[in-house]
Design brief:
single chain, alpha/beta, Rossmann fold, six-stranded mixed beta sheet, four-stranded antiparallel beta sheet, binds adenosine-5'-triphosphate, binds magnesium ion
Length: 296
């Protein structure tokens, strides 16, 4: 199937500042693509290029098969977009604003809007200007989802949402994906991306450091394991196991780091009596830091 997003050499320079450098990315349909990176990495720049709000300095992008340079309006019509700094008319109520947008776009089922508001616990009768940051963000989320676009591009969608609402939002993301839609979302919150994304791209200083599935990233990741032996730790043996990187032995307790699969380690332990094992599952945070360390 054709990718929903395809960029080649996509670059944006702000004067001499590099916002994004030579992004080559293909996002297949029907997945959640998580875009991770620290502040200033280029996430918002990439997203604004993909919705045609910025023009690239070099390179090109195609979204839903449409060349952005040729028809940015068509891309904007067909993509659900939540900007990182979502703002709306403060004097309208959430309901008035969403109705206004719905009429403008057409094809919006008002019951679906009310259901979204109910799920996100948003009062549509309150003035947007009087809403808290998190509640205003919900208006932005609803406007992105309400006409069920085939592609959603969301810049830090969970910013300002409390944990309960973050969970509800992630459920909406999964439901949209399961209905065959494609979502690209940016975040610094690694656990949330890990919970919802099928593929992850890590941006750093305008460069795409890696793109991989969450599973593969985890498989390449370092894991910390504690082993409690019945007798003294066979330190030299442990250090020789493929994938084992660091071994700290203290009496009968060994703490070690394993890269990727632990199968070799487990096989090597067979002749020994191990009383307990504690495995600290690698999260994206560790993967993230490992990537940054690698890159220097
Ligand atoms: N309008 C602008 N003028 C000049 N430089 C800009 C502009 N917008 C972004 N930049 C620079 O481009 C780089 C990437 O910024 P961008 O906003 O894309 O990062 P981000 O990954 O979205 O960060 P954050 O996590 O803080 O939202 C940064 O160095 C930033 O200072
Ligand atoms: Mg940003």
């Amino acid at each position: 199937m054709d990718p929903v997003i395809r960029t080649s050499g996509l670059s944006k320079h702000y004067g001499h500042i590099v916002g994004l450098e030579s992004l080559d990315l293909q996002v297949p349909p029907g997945i959640v693509f998580g875009c991770l990176g620290p502040n200033g990495a280029g996430k918002t720049t990439a997203i604004r290029l993909l919705v045609g709000l910025l023009r690239p300095t070099h390179g090109r992008a195609e979204v839903l098969g449409i060349d952005l340079a040729a028809d940015p309006d068509e891309v904007q019509r067909r993509v659900g977009y939540l900007p990182g700094d979502f703002k709306a008319y403060p004097d309208l109520t959430g309901g008035q604003y969403l109705r206004y947008l719905g009429n403008l776009r057409g094809g919006v089922d008002w019951q679906a809007v009310e259901l979204l508001a109910k799920r996100l616990d948003l009062d549509l009768t309150r003035r947007i200007g009087a809403l808290s940051h998190g509640n205003r963000q919900k208006v932005g989320i609803i406007q992105a989802f309400m006409n069920e676009p085939e592609l959603l591009i969301l810049d830090e969608p969970t910013a300002g949402l409390d944990p309960l609402m973050q969970r509800e939002f992630l459920a909406l993301v999964r439901e949209a994906r399961d209905a065959g839609r494609t979502l690209l979302l940016s975040s610094h919150i690694l656990t949330e991306v890990e919970a919802v994304a099928d593929m992850v791209g890590i941006l750093r200083e305008g460069h795409l450091a890696t793109v991989d599935s969450v599973e593969n990233l985890k498989a390449r990741a370092l894991r910390r394991i504690d082993l409690i032996f019945a007798h003294e730790v066979p330190e030299a043996m442990l250090a020789g196991v493929p994938g084992v990187q660091e071994v700290h032995a203290d009496g009968t307790i060994a703490q070690l780091t394993v890269e990727g699969s632990t199968a070799d380690l487990i096989a090597a332990l067979a002749p020994y009596r191990v009383d307990d094992v504690v495995s600290h599952e690698a999260d994206l945070e560790e993967i993230f830091l490992a990537y940054y360390a690698e890159e220097g």
